[in-house]
Amino acid sequence: MVIGVARAAGDLARRMYASGQATVREKSSAIDLVTAADVAAETFIRDTLERLFPGVALWGEESNQRPNQRSFWLVDPIDGTTNFAHNVAYCSVNIALQDGLDTLLAVTYHIGLDCTYHARRGLGAFLRDASGNERQLAVSSTASLRTALLITGFPYHRAESTDNNSAEFAYFMPRTACVRNLGSAALDLAHVAMGAADGYWEAWLNPWDIAAGALLVREAGGTVTTYEGHEWTLDANHIVASNGAPALHEALLDGIRAARASLPEKRLAVFA
Question: Under CATH, what is the fold of the domain 2-136?
């Protein structure tokens, strides 16, 4: 049911883009964008979920009002808006069901590929293709940092501060198989869950960016923590996800700590 809602929202976004209705405007800065499709998709998701599940609140990126209720939907109508606005297919609709800090259900719909990643707590993670065929997701078996493919992203303040993930990126790039910056945190986490990537880190994120993806990774057998190695929850705006190989996850945490040690200024409150 929730998968259908996410797919319909993604279809709405695609149709708006194709018809020229997905007009773009700045949000917090010239590089932080929102489109008319983001707003329309969130409204559609809100109205549809309210009809299907009356009384369950919703916290969405565009409205950004955290509910007082313990249980609520957490929604990013288009994760990867910059990609979407530039007609890059790597963007997604994300819906998570929260019980306080615990994520019970996750749906990440890949707008460009018309496929859906989904998970329920304790029941595994799955990929459903456009034809309805499903397969269970499992993380990779890569054990070392040197052979790992990592994904990351950069914050909107990257031109204003040296604490912008550049130090971490510079640390990992020569020590890994490669590091990619793809533009949708939710899909980045889904790729860790499906074993296409071995690890992911990023900071200055919002709960709607990563709640669904964090559950996908955990249900696929991976590990999700903060930069300091604590279990990740909605209260943390930074995340490290991996296939769970102890040496690899520890190398990710050690690398982030080492890279951040020499920063002239620090905007992120970690390793205090």
Answer: Fructose-1,6-Bisphosphatase; Chain A, domain 1 (3.30.540)
Q: Is the pLDDT reported for residue 158 higher than 80? A: no
CA distance 190 to 96: 14
Helix ranges, 139-203 (H): 166-172, 185-193
Give burial (CB, 10 Å; 0-12/13-18/19+) of 156.
Answer: middle
122: amino acid identity, one letter: G
Beta carbons of 84 and 35 less than 8 angstroms apart: yes
**Residues 12-38: tens digit of each pLDDT:** 999 988 888 777 775 666 655 678 898
The reported pTM is: 0.95
In three state form, how does the secondary structure of 201-241 look? EEECCCHHHHHHHHHHHHHCCCEEECCCCCECCCCCCEEEE
Domains of the chain by residue range: 2-136, 149-261
186 close to 210: Cβ distance less than 8 angstroms = yes
Q: Does domain 149-261 have CATH number 3.40.50.620?
A: no
* N-to-C CA span, the chain: 44
Measured in degrees and rounded to the nearest 5, phi and psi for residue 181 equal -120, 105
